[in-house]
Each structure stands twice: as C-alpha cells, then as structure tokens.
Amino acid sequence: MHEIQFSQINSPASSLLVYQNIPLVNESDSDIQFVHYSQILSHDEQFDNSSEDSVGNNETNSATLSHAELRHQIHIISERRRCAKINDAFEGLCKQLPNTYIGHKMSKVALLQKAASHLENSSRKEKMLLGVIKHLDQNCVYLGAELERCVHCVGL
Fold first, then answer.
1. Which of 50-54, 78-82, 95-99, 137-141 has the lowest mean pLDDT?
2. How far is Cα 134 from Cα 142, in angstroms, rounded to an integer?
3. Does residue 107 lie within any of the structural domains?
4. Could you tell me the pTM of the whole model?
5. Domain that holds residue 144
6. For 25-52, what is each residue's pLDDT tens digit?
7. Whose CA is closest to 76, among 4, 1, 2?
C-alpha cells in the first residue's frame, strides 16, 4: 500500500511530474495515473487544442490528465493523508485510555466521550490525592510537634 506524492522538477531538459511512494491506509489508493508534466496543459492550451484536432486525439486525450483532474487527485491524496493522521491520533488516544481495546471498534465520538470522562476522573482523583497529601503533611507537623513536646518533657 503506497500513497503517491507529486512534485514538479524543473530542469533545462524537461519538466516532469514525478512521484514517490509513501505508505497508505487502503490498497484502493494506488490507482492513480502518472503522466509526463508536459502533457498537462493549461486551460487555454486545452481549449485551443480541442478546436484543432478534436477527432484525431481521442486516444491521447484519454491518457492525459487535465490540470483540474491532477489537482483533484492531489486533493484526494492530501485528504487521505489528513484522514490517516486523524485516525492515527485516535488510535494513539485509544491506547492511552484504560479498558479500551484497539481491536474493539469504537466510534470516534464514543472515544472522545470516554477520553473526556477519563480526564474528569483523573482530575477528580488528583484533587483527592492532593487533599490526602495536605492531610498527611498536617499530621507530620502535628507529630513533629508532639515529638518535640515529649522530648522536652523527658528532658533528653
């Protein structure tokens, strides 16, 4: 599974549309056409050429991506990459939550609700533990004072 990333190379010899393979989420993402960049015409060039040879160029026109089609395919690739990043983030969130299993499919809304609930519970637990720490500190101060009083009474 690979994602196609387009980039333009400008050189004196030619201008090429090149690609590199990047992992994708779905196998169906690999059905993108590749064309030489010189085949991608501006809107005006397409209009001019269509009036000249509209009958004889059906085969070459069908193999060529228009600029709009190329932009659309690049947009689709970008959107798939964005969705994959979002899904990866949700999977990472799922791993951080207790009692959440990756194999068990959970809706994104349910996962966000569970995360919010977990954060609220963690915040509540933190406040409770801070209260316990404060109480233990007070006990330490009290016991330290009692120890001083006992030592003073015994005369050590």
1. 50-54
2. 12
3. no
4. 0.49
5. 113-156
6. 444 444 444 444 444 444 444 444 444 4
7. 4
